């Protein structure tokens, strides 16, 4: 999708010299940001796009500083998660799981099951959903996840256990179908595979 007409760019301010670098960053990271946002919103593709654009706008404002960081991509992911949580605090409406799923680049043998998983994600509390996405999709440690969400390590572990339990309750044996494994309960790696399948 082309957001060049409405995306903030360094030409809008004193960072004009940074324009090519910022655009390269967006081109390289926007697709991954969209996939993350899609999981965070529980499958609301339109809201995911809005959140990514808002997050990129926030990144642009501080691009001179962010571009010098060791991991600008990680910073952008943090901004996206915080943008999502801020949105959920402002809005009482729930996300909509769309019937049109983003392209994944791999064969999807059971789109209906994928939608079931996204609906299960959307039923989680936003903060619990954010914990799962950070831990199993973004590969963040407990400590890193706690830092992004500004909560304690113990709270991250509690939310992770609770959210995974709810997913298992809703999906049952569909978890095994999603990953092609037959263990009665998914392992942490199994749960990560489930999130990768969802996007």
Description of the molecule:
- There is one protein chain.
- The relative contact order is 0.12.
- Helices cover 65% and strands 0% of the residues.
- The chain contains ten helices and no strands.
- It is mostly helical and 199 residues long.
- The chain is globular and about 50 Å long.
- The model is unreliable at 1-6, 8-17, 99-109 and 179-190 (pLDDT under 50).
- It has one domain (15-198): PhyR, sigma-like (SL) domain (Butyryl-CoA Dehydrogenase, subunit A, domain 3, Up-down Bundle), CATH 1.20.140.
Structural topology:
Blueprint: H1 19-40, H2 45-61, H3 63-66, H4 72-90, H5 111-122, H6 126-137, H7 142-149, H8 153-171, H9 174-179, H10 188-198
Helix pairs in contact: 1-2, 1-4, 2-4, 5-8, 6-8, 6-10, 7-8
Low-confidence stretches: 1-6, 8-17, 99-109, 179-190
* Fraction of residues in H or I helices: 55-70%
Order of helices and strands: HHHHHHHHHH
Q: Tell me about the biggest sheet?
A: none
Task: Indicate the proportion of strand residues.
Answer: under 5%
The overall pLDDT, averaged over residues, is 77
Alpha-beta classification: mainly alpha
- Classified in CATH, the superfamily is PhyR, sigma-like (SL) domain
- Counting H and I runs of at least 4 residues, what is the number of helices? 10
The number of distinct structural domains comes to: 1
Total number of strands = 0
Features:
mainly alpha; 0% strand; 199 residues; 65% helix; disordered N terminus; Butyryl-CoA Dehydrogenase, subunit A, domain 3; single chain
């Amino acid at each position: 999708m082309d957001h060049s007409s409405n995306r903030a760019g360094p030409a809008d301010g004193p960072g004009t010299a940074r324009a090519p670098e910022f655009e390269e960053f967006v081109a390289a990271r926007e697709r991954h940001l969209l996939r993350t946002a899609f999981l965070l919103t529980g499958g609301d593709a339109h809201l995911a796009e809005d959140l990514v654009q808002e997050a990129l706008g926030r990144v642009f404002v501080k691009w001179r500083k962010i571009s010098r960081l060791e991991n600008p991509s990680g910073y952008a992911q943090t901004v996206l998660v915080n943008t999502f949580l801020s949105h959920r605090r402002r809005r009482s409406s729930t996300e909509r799981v769309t019937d049109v799923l983003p392209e994944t680049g791999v064969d999807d043998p059971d789109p209906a099951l994928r939608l079931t998983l996204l609906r299960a994600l959307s039923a989680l509390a936003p903060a619990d959903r954010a914990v799962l996405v950070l831990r199993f999709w973004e590969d963040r440690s407990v400590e890193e996840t706690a830092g992004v969400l500004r909560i304690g390590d113990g709270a991250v572990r509690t939310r992770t256990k609770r959210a995974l339990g709810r997913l298992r309750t809703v999906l049952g044996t569909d978890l095994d179908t999603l990953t092609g494994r037959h263990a009665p309960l998914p392992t942490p790696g199994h749960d990560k595979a489930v999130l990768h399948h969802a996007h």
